[in-house]
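sry for the spam today, last one i promise. struct tokens for design, 147 residues
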């Protein structure tokens, strides 16, 4: 099995370039079309649909008026090899037109990760299964909820 995840984007060429530069992922040139670009590894394909794909997929009624303010309902996590790669990806994000939502940090489940947004505002994470030397996983703290 291979997982394919696709984002609806305004500028599919720019999105492709961002993820290629940030993560060093190759383009899947076989799936390239006027309304689709993708990066691919042996384990997954991460693709970018242009706005006309809403209609092709019978989702025109779901197309947001302002994609930049669409709610975050899902996000990708790219598992990297070590904490230094997470730090480097976070460091490159702004220079490539994205933004850091939450800088590299230790999770309560023992991963080192950063929460980022691409140039069109899609949220994603870069993470690794180990913590930097000397860093311990914090206790889980949940935000207070209104009753």
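last one done:
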């Amino acid at each position: 099995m291979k997982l394919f995840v696709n984002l609806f984007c305004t500028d599919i060429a720019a999105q492709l370039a961002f993820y290629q530069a940030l993560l060093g992922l190759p383009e899947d040139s076989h799936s390239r079309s006027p309304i689709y670009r993708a990066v691919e590894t042996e384990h997954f394909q991460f693709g970018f649909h242009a706005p006309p794909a809403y209609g092709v997929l019978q989702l025109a009624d779901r197309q947001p008026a302002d994609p930049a303010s669409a709610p975050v309902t899902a996000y990708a996590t790219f598992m990297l090899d070590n904490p230094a790669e997470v730090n480097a990806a976070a460091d490159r994000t702004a220079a490539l037109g994205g933004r850091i939502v939450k800088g590299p940090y230790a999770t309560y489940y023992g991963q080192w990760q950063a929460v980022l947004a691409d140039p069109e505002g899609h949220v994603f994470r870069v993470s690794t299964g180990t913590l930097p030397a000397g860093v311990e996983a914090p206790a889980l703290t949940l935000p207070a909820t209104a009753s």
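The longest strand covers residues 99-106. ok im logging off now
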